[in-house]
Amino acid sequence: MQILTILEPSTTDLEPTSHSTDNTGLTAALVSAAMAGANPIGVNMLKAAYAGDRTAHKALYGQFYDVLISLAKIQRWKFREKAKKELRLRALVDIAMFDIIVAIPCPECKGSKLDPIKKPCPVCRGIGKRRITGIDFAAVLGIDESTWRKTWEPRYSEFVQILQENLYDSRRYIYKRLINEG
Questions:
Q1: DSSP sequence for 40-102
Q2: Among 13, 33, 48, 130, which residue is least crowded by beta carbons within 10 Å?
């Protein structure tokens, strides 16, 4: 996959654009320089997901945890079982790491997001990766599915939204820098 297409998913080789999406003239030094100043969480997400960078993967765990703790404090999350608070927060980070970074391809569409007639895949609903069910989330957190749905699912959704915004901001920042320098 080409670096500019990774950074700006709306750009594909098949769409006419005002700039080239090929890697001609892009060096590791240019890409590295373009990353300077970008959101560090988003940069580490890119490195871990697309380059398999283990150092970035390890750094993300702490960064994700810090984001989650900040969110919990801002929203004043209440925990019935104080002893399990840390365990549940860490489990939520584990789930997010798996869900966002590992992203196992959908068994039906094999990650293409489309079925054979070019409609969104009915299994993954067009996201291209295996969907994690509420039962899976509840099991990892050690809670029942109704508690997941009522309490933890909205928390997780907001947490993932923040992480996705970090990724989007970094992708846009790096992409713009590469286009301006390239």
A1: HHHHHHHHHHHS--HHHHHHHHHHHHHHHHHHHHHHT---S-HHHHHHHHHHHHHHHIIIIII
A2: 13
User: What is the dihedral angle through the alpha carbons of 49, 53, 59, 65, rounded to the nearest 10 degrees?
Assistant: 20
Angle between helices 82-96 and 54-75 (to 10 degrees): 130
Distances (CA, A) of 135 to 86, 125, 143, 144: 21, 18, 9, 8
CA distance 109 to 129: 9
Instruction: Look over the chain and give the mean of its residue pLDDT values, rounded to a whole number.
Output: 81
> Which position has the token pair 């846009």?
172
Exposure letters 19-58 (e unless 16+ CB within 10 A, then b): eebeeeebeeebbeebbeebbebbbbbbbbbeeebeebbe
Per-residue pLDDT at 49? 82
DSSP string, 115-150: -TTSSB-TTTTTS-BPPPPHHHHHHHHTS-HHHIII
- The string of pLDDT tens digits covering residues 55-65 is 988 999 999 99
Question: What's the CA gap between 56 and 177, in Å, rounded?
Answer: 21
